[in-house]
Amino acid sequence: MTGLRYVYAVCRPFRSALQAQLSGVAGAPPKQLTHHGLIAVVSTVPEADFAEEPLRAHLEDLDWLTATARAHQQVIDALTVVTTPLPLRLATVFRDDSGVRSMMEAREEDFRRVLDRLEGRVEWGVKVYAETERAGPTERAGLTEPAETGGGPEPKAVSGRDYLRRRRMQTQAREDVWHRAAAFAGRLHETLSSFAEESRLHAPQNSALSRASGQNVFNAAYLVPRADSEEFVELVDQAKDDAPGIRVELTGPWAAYSFTGEFAEEEPDEPEVGP
Question: Is 259 exposed, middle or buried (0-12, 13-18, 19+ CB in 10 A)?
């Protein structure tokens, strides 16, 4: 094969075939590279895009980065169906097969240790959002009271004192919802972390960036045996019934990104182009 080697994950040998027509980064199909009883899942990518300098430039291009991350994740998701992969960080690239094998040789002990810990386990993500009502444009401006029904009387002007009172009430209501959501999240985390083998707390997401409704007050990942996943999902579903005004979002099952240590990071600080 010509071109550079893009590495998605390291795993143990698996018998089940990956889904037909699976394509990875740059549209290339993933292949298996065996070394000392471990498998590196790789594909060939063009040097013009993935050599150190062009890759560094591409990582500043949001559209390119998004497309690459989706293709990377597509391969990881396919692997998660048939085995327990140890995902590597986005844009892990080596010069050739020999470079990939050298990397595997150098990190073999760590790979085996992490794969032993993750075997048969998946990651579930849980987020809790405080849902707050959003004021209309005239209310935000503090100029008028909205009419109760369409076609009703014209909105009437609001005094400065009434506007300030209303703003205080809105702020207090939002704070009350936030505190209830935070307390609920604490109880939920205690329940889920006692069931899961491991858990990780992540920083809440910025709603302006994620475009999710409500304010994210809790963001966690849980490592769960695949065989126990149905019971874990039921625990989350039961909790949703006790959370009026609070939204619980469950995602997964994923490869165990949050539990792989230094091997998988969402976005590399530097392009990792090996020998």
Answer: buried
The answer to whether the pTM exceeds 0.85 is no
DSSP letters, the chain, are --SEEEEEEEE----SPPPTT---GGGPPPEEEEETTEEEEEEEE-HHHHSHHHHHHHTT-HHHHHHHHHHHHHHHHHHHHHS--EEPPTTEEESSHHHHHHHHHHHHHHHHHHHHHHTTEEEEEEEEEE------HHHHHTSEEPPSSTTSSPPEE--HHHHHHHHHHHHHHHHHHHHHHHHHHHHHHHHHHHHSSEEEE-PPPPHHHH--SSEEEEEEEEEEEGGGHHHHHHHHHHHHTT-TTEEEEEEEEE--GGGSTTS--SS-SS-EE--
Residue 116 burial (CB < 10 Å; 0-12/13-18/19+)?
Answer: exposed
**Interval 57-75: pLDDT, tens:** 999 999 999 999 999 999 9
Residue range 3-18: average pLDDT? 92
Give the mean model confidence (pLDDT) for residues 169-196. Answer: 84
Name the nearest CA neighbour of 4 among 64, 53, 76, 77.
Answer: 53
Is the pLDDT score of 165 beyond 90?
A: no
Rg of the chain in Å (alpha carbons):
24
- In which residue are the tokens 């100029």 written? 143
Distance of alpha carbon 212 from alpha carbon 96, whole angstroms: 41
CATH 3.30.70.600: does it fit domain 122-134+173-256?
yes
Which residues of the chain are in CATH 3.30.70.600 domains? 122-134+173-256
Residue 195's DSSP bridge partners are none
